[in-house]
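Moderator note: this is an archived Q&A kept for reference. The question asked for a predicted structure of one protein chain; the sequence and the answer are reproduced below.
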Amino acid sequence: MKAIMGWDLAGLAGEEKRMFLSHLSFHREIVADIISEARSQLVEARREYLKRLVAYHKDFAKWFSRLERQFAA
């Protein structure tokens, strides 16, 4: 995702833009579901992995929100 977050996406056309945003929003929701499930069944030995995943999701969600606003303009 770090590589994708560095791409210049300004040149995407209408349908490409919608497909890309759809794919990324699906990714965001899947990761959120994984976090929710992991929290409900937290295994102490895996707490650090969950913290990393939550931090990743937070950064990704901020970036994606900015991207959605950029594409909406």
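Archived answer notes: DSSP finds three helices and no strands in the chain.
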